[in-house]
Design a protein that fits this description.
The structure is a homotetramer of 242-residue chains.
Chain A (H helix, E strand, L loop, with lengths): L1 E7 L9 H4 L4 H9 L4 E7 L9 H5 L3 E5 L9 H12 L3 E5 L6 H7 L6 E13 L13 E11 L9 E8 L4 E10 L2 E6 L12 H14 L25
Parallel strand pairs in A: 1-2, 1-3, 3-4, 4-9
Antiparallel strand pairs in A: 5-6, 5-7, 7-8, 8-9
Helix pairs in contact in A: 4-5
């Protein structure tokens, strides 16, 4: 059983037009859309104590999803530090859409995570770049979202981003829309679709990608601490002066 | 003229035995050791106001060197954020020895930057892994430091670290001792030798590596901001509903 | 059931001292050492017709192991081309020891795959570099082989080699001794231990690494061809001249 | 002075419509377009003896450009092997357009180098992905070619391809249209524009990119052989049995 936690800022959904699209919140739409027998899904949101991300929850989470947008700064640095430490020890992290500018994504990658953008409800077309990747299992070579926010290159991420999807936008832009990273023992997947004013998280392909990514990001249970231990020589060192 | 700033914690040098080895500080030893006609070298230290890293100095710095050890936590988060932003816009960053655990190195890479260590004055042998890299120009295929602190794998860095040097330690360990990264427009080089109780920064090969790294890390003057601009379509978008 | 084919040059084993160490050949020693319920293991050797690598065998192989040394040139270019094409479509490839200089490894990577070497029966110590990698499951942080051939840096491989193991040699050298690559849909693992005059393929850790690597390299069954199809526009192109 | 050799298949230019666009051949158009004081430019074509690529020419070439299309198979394996060996020792290689399917590009990368394609004279829009890269110096953030052949993802290249340009095509496709690699001591740049029936090699941006790439690909003169030398221990090995 994979223990999934979906974290959502859950602010846009308080008012229209987002309220009508995601009445229970983006997190609940995703939770329902990816529901499966091998997934135990919990949700957490910004305005809960500790943003809902208690130590207990983080320790018992295999894969964390993150959706945020207008309230990135409201996320406490302490929680970000905890999530980062947990990812380095193995927890998978799936960052969605505007989460590119979240504190946690920037803290994991070190770069700006910046991009160019425009919201004119244009068509996005996604392309599978690595057909052998487990994240694209069951996904067609290309699929479209009729209305999405444009995110365009240059995307401020490190060079070890393994490209799984690239996107074409009607207005003339391109973007690395699905990219994986490893940081410490943790696997990270960034997936670009998901603007709050469109029903993207009801799209069958988007949901399948998220579900695949969860199974891909499950940590090996290594228990490795990534700390700085002092240690003894394992081979004999000649006496000083030799 | 390349504008170099050498930043040093400058705490160990207040007392013996480090005081005798580096009486003017590690920064001054490096400054003297790499002095050359194409380099304009300034120094800055922890206990100066703003740690000596004013906005004016950072903006006029092409390449920043960083040595820190016992006082990583004393470096203000505000200064770290400024240095990180400057690197993303192009400033080169050369992180030395125990600087692997500095706030700035962790902030740039996102990972733990952890490693295994031991200080028993053993011999270190460095190997050139990429003989074509500008950082190894004039450096022999292998060279030794008679006494160094051991830093051993696993080293908690991202996978895009381009390996320039790998090291062998008498006590049985190995380490990626010279590694480059690009973050935003900035080039980063981590170089492991340099424990404060040894005269490492008087070694001719170590100094040559640092000098080469400075020339390699000089930024292209792009002025690119790595921010998130809203932008207009560059190709015509069909009217809604089509 | 994972279908494994162990390919061996099987020339050294015709004479002493290798004959006494591996009387049925290196391939049979490995086959016995990694035997498990989820593995269906077949062997093939150089002097069989088509080197034992018929189209049928290749098509029904999930993971191919490769050991060669003195007869790399005797492997036909046609067979190499077939194996390469099969790897690109997804077959896993595990290249052992002196196989670094095989035609197939060079054909997959494009580089020289060269290294420095010495055979004086020195001790090798391997270190786990990525404790979260499935290939190191059950392997201690470090383990030794009392007598191995030294392979030393620089190792002529591309920069996307993901380092799983690094080695320390008594005589002063270091080496990236366990490295993974992806080429097309195929996963590749190079593992350095295995000189023919030592009983390396009876070592419990070496066998466990090979077994882990087989499970890691199993292909996703994508059927993707990696060919160059002509294709139609998927978005409307304005009439010429617009 | 950088010694540049432009290699061209020079077959399409024998007949219309290509003859009228490139009456002296694609190679001469490029040579004229990139002419500069720091470049010494020579040309070589398929139908010359040894395809014009004598040992003398290769040894005295710093950067080789390669354009081929309908006659990839007519290039001798011996010449390909020589070019590959020269690249590994440091010669820069710039592969243009349909050269993605040349023997030399496939030999350097090991992968299929396959892609999806269509020739309907649609518009291509290129985007700069790394604004700090020397190859994009003086190039606007985006520029267009009114008529190009579409090359689309998935592009069968290894994961260490550093992306410099990505392209958008009117018909709905995307492509990594400018990508760098290092193989041995040699730098490689693949640049996608350049279909023979369009005047692409008269475009000011295309020419500037090629010129920048030449300066970027100039080899460090290391003389490193990337061969397999036997070598002696550099650290003392305890007597056998210890």
């Amino acid at each position: 059983m994979i223990r999934v936690t979906i974290w959502n800022e859950f602010r846009h959904e308080q008012t229209e037009p987002v309220k009508s699209i995601y009445p229970q919140g983006i997190h609940e739409a995703i939770a329902k859309g990816i529901a499966a027998e091998d997934l135990e899904i919990r949700c957490a949101t910004l305005d809960e104590p500790e943003h809902g991300l208690t130590d207990e929850l983080l320790e018992s989470t295999d894969v964390l999803l993150w959706w945020g947008h207008i309230a990135h700064k409201a996320v406490s640095d302490e929680v970000v530090a905890k999530v980062r430490a947990r990812v380095l020890r193995g927890m998978g992290l799936i960052v969605l859409h505007s989460g590119h500018y979240s504190k946690i994504f920037q803290a994991m990658l070190g770069t700006s995570c910046s991009l160019r953008w425009r919201q004119v409800a244009e068509k996005e077309r996604l392309w599978v770049v690595d057909p052998s990747h487990p994240i694209v299992k069951g996904i067609p070579q290309t699929f479209t979202l009729e209305h999405e926010e444009m995110y365009g290159e240059p995307f401020g991420i490190p060079d070890d981003g393994k490209i799984v999807f690239m996107s074409w936008f009607q207005g003339g832009d391109v973007f690395r829309s699905g990219v994986t990273f490893q940081r410490g023992s943790g696997k990270i997947f960034y997936f670009q679709p998901g603007h709050e004013t469109f029903p993207t998280y009801y799209d069958v392909n988007v949901l399948k990608v998220i579900g695949n990514a969860i199974r891909w990001a499950v940590p090996a249970d290594t228990g490795f601490a990534w700390d700085c231990p002092r240690c003894e020589p394992v081979e004999p060192i000649p006496p000083a002066g030799e």
